[in-house]
Design goal:
- The chain is 27% helix and 27% strand.
- It is an alpha/beta fold.
- The strands form 3 sheets. Strands 3, 5, 6, 9, 10, 17 and 18 form a 7-stranded mixed beta sheet that branches.
Length: 364
């Protein structure tokens, strides 16, 4: 089968033929239909974060089940599924407490007696997060998948597994935004736009979108933002605080930079909660005044993929899309074939697009 493989970083993806193994007892073979390009993929392409090479990146995927392992009970051939990289064991202390995104055994669930993928030279090829969505087929643990209704377009469903789950999911699961509260979202890419929509769906009063792109700010308004701030224009924190009468109740950082995480914290009103969604590199420690934590009872927290319970959350987001309440069509800037995946990442890197979706139909 064809796959877009990262062989060196920083670098480009190479389109090549790889062999995929048969599913193990708890694994599912999925024919990939569509996969979203995520900034986390871009971090590995650009060597901002390291990973073992060669590797098939991609985790925001949707497809159709082709074959299941002998002990799989949750899906069957023909099911339409969405992947989520927070695969869970179901029995560790985090899973039994409902915190599936913190599963203590996730790495063990990805282990198998032989490589899932090998290239033409017989070299093992890794799969990002045990998924490897930039390929015509995926081999995924059954606890990294959820079934969805066949009436849901797969080139929209794929977005729910990561960007929507991370942004909108954090609004409901991690921050638990209350109706009537004020919210600020720093960064209006795919994750940030989902957070804006989540705030609208949660009944927020004022939703302030912050970005440097006028086009993205305009799109954020159509998604539910009531106010926008161009981050290029002076005092971002002061502007957010002025628009909201002294600060927001909830803020979300959706870029992955120290500066914006600090801005998200400083934009809070007393008692507010800032949630970091972006992948901030380890060499960017945050500087937060301790007095703001105890004197004004502000909170700074992180959220991994929206702190999700994805087998419940993803079908609910599918329902919201089909009801016209969750806007996914507007989030998709471009749909490209696998052959043009590097063009998609170039556009993502330039900041000129919101979400790019790659489909697996072969070009004539």
């Amino acid at each position: 089968m064809r796959a877009a493989v990262l062989n060196s970083a920083p670098g480009r993806l190479d389109l090549e033929e790889v062999e995929i193994d048969a599913p193990g007892p708890h694994e599912v073979l999925v024919r990939t239909a569509a996969v979203g390009l995520c900034h986390s993929d871009l971090h590995y392409l650009d060597a901002v974060f390291a990973t073992g090479l060669p590797e098939v990146l991609g985790h925001e995927a949707a497809g159709v089940v082709e074959e299941v392992g002998e002990e799989v009970r949750s899906v069957r051939p023909g099911d339409h599924v969405v992947t989520c990289l927070t695969v869970f064991c179901g029995h560790c202390r985090y899973c039994t407490d409902g915190r599936l995104s913190l599963c203590a055994n996730r790495s063990a669930l990805h282990s198998r007696p032989r490589p899932a993928l090998v290239n033409a030279d017989g070299t093992a090829v890794g799969r990002m997060s045990g998924i490897g969505g930039f390929a015509e087929r995926m081999l995924v643990h059954e606890n990294g998948l959820v079934t969805i209704t066949p009436s849901m377009p797969l080139d929209r469903a794929c977005l729910i597994g990561c960007s929507v789950m991370t942004g909108a999911g954090a609004v409901f699961r991690a921050a638990r935004v209350r109706p009537g509260s004020d919210v600020a979202v720093f960064g209006c890419g795919g994750v940030g736009m989902a957070a804006v929509q989540g705030a609208r769906l949660a009944g927020a009063n004022r939703v302030v979108a912050v970005d440097i792109s006028p086009d993205k700010l305009a799109l954020a308004c159509s998604m539910g933002a009531t106010h926008t701030v161009d981050a290029r224009d002076g005092d971002v924190v002061g502007t957010v605080r002025a628009l909201t009468g002294g600060g927001v109740d909830y803020s979300f950082e959706a870029i992955g930079r120290r500066e914006t995480a600090e801005q998200a914290f400083h934009a809070l009103a007393p008692g507010g909660t800032a949630t970091v969604l972006g992948m901030i590199p380890a060499d960017q420690p945050l500087s937060i005044p301790g007095t703001e934590l105890f004197l004004h009872e502000k909170r700074l927290q992180g959220s991994f993929i929206g702190s999700n319970q994805f087998r419940v959350d993803i079908p609910r987001f599918v329902d919201l899309y089909q009801q016209g309440r969750l806007r996914l069509d507007e989030m998709v800037s471009r749909v490209l074939p696998l052959e043009e995946i590097n063009d998609g990442f170039h556009a993502l890197r330039s900041g000129t697009v919101n979400r790019v979706v790659v489909t697996m139909e072969r070009q004539p």
